[in-house]
Write a structure and sequence with these properties.
single chain, alpha/beta, TIM Barrel, eight-stranded parallel beta barrel, 42% helix, globular, binds phosphoenolpyruvate
């Protein structure tokens, strides 16, 4: 089936790479990724590395993203980074990653505030949704991702970009697949997207928008299994954690995402 959405492969560096380490990795990424057309590429380093990485990406086709942010523009929130600060440097911001939900108390309500403030600041959110192992085994996958989408995007107004694309990315990341080496099957991930994620988006924003939003898969993606996901009709790329820290591996994954 022909896909009309441009695939996106984004690397989530998590809490890895000092500035010095980032300076070593990024030139290899630029050399390998920049010439690859037909797929959008993004990397999401830790906050401290954003500015130096932005300088290294200058003139390349690789976008920059942050891994989180607060929802307020400014204020007495020691240790936080605001949407306006992120927007000075980045195109994308990951919101509601399962590690933030699990370890830092993020809820659908705080995720929703962050998504709204991302738009106010001019950022494109990569909204992460996905069920835990327990929820999966209890047959609650659909219920969980529908709730995360509907509450995370409550009262959000989507305005198409000048080129008609929709400035929203959903990453379906089953929690049990993240960093475990145990990826979902391409077919199962595709079913979650077609049965729960796009219908939830359609209820919120209408069918046309739901069909235009890019939905990525994330969870133990590597070069050896990437094409299984990219060949699925409803999956438009990947959010890659561990494998995005190695230039050769990440470049190989991005090559598999190129539309035929
Ligand atoms: C992630 O951090 O979003 C992720 C999917 O991690 P990994 O690829 O390491 O499973």
């Amino acid at each position: 089936m022909e896909k009309k959405r441009i695939p996106l492969v984004a690397g989530n560096w998590k809490m890895y790479k000092t500035i010095a380490e980032a300076r070593q990795l990024v030139p290899d990424l630029v050399a390998g990724l920049d010439p690859i057309a037909g797929v959008e590429k993004a990397i999401c380093p830790p906050f401290t590395a954003l500015l130096p990485v932005k300088a290294l990406l200058e003139g390349s086709s690789i976008h920059l993203g942050a891994q989180n942010m607060h929802w307020e523009d400014s204020g007495a929130y020691t240790g936080e980074i605001s949407p306006r600060m992120v927007a000075e440097l980045c195109t994308y911001v990951i919101i509601g990653h399962s590690e933030r939900r699990a370890y830092f108390g993020e809820t659908d309500e705080t995720v929703n505030k962050k998504v709204k403030s991302a738009y106010t600041a001019g950022l494109i959110p990569i909204l992460c949704v996905g069920e835990t192992l327990q929820e999966n085994e209890a047959g609650k996958t659909g219920e969980v991702v529908e709730r995360q989408i509907k509450k995370g995007l409550l009262d959000v107004r989507l305005t198409p970009e000048k080129d008609g694309s929709i400035p929203l990315v959903i990453a379906y990341e089953p929690v049990w697949a993240i960093g475990t080496g145990r990826a979902a099957s391409g077919e199962d991930a595709n079913t979650v997207v077609s049965k729960y994620i796009r219908p939830s988006l359609a209820q919120l924003f209408g069918l046309a928008v739901a069909q235009s939003v890019r939905v990525l898969y994330g969870g133990s993606v590597k070069a050896s299994n990437a094409s299984e996901f990219f060949n699925q009709p409803e999956i438009d790329g990947a959010l890659v954690g561990g494998a995005s820290l190695k230039a050769d591996e990440f470049i190989a994954i991005v090559k598999y995402a190129v539309l035929p």
